[in-house]
Amino acid sequence: MDTLLWILAVVLVIAGIVAIVRKQLLWGIVLIVVGLLVGPGGVSILS
Hints:
The chain has helices at 2-21, 25-38. It is an all-alpha fold.
């Protein structure tokens, strides 16, 4: 389960960075924050 959360977190952070590059700053910040919260190193929502 940790591996799945880690992969999801990485995808969210990468999507956030891509959104920021595309000038969608707010959406990018939201994706990065959610990615950091979901990741095993952060405050996991599912556990």
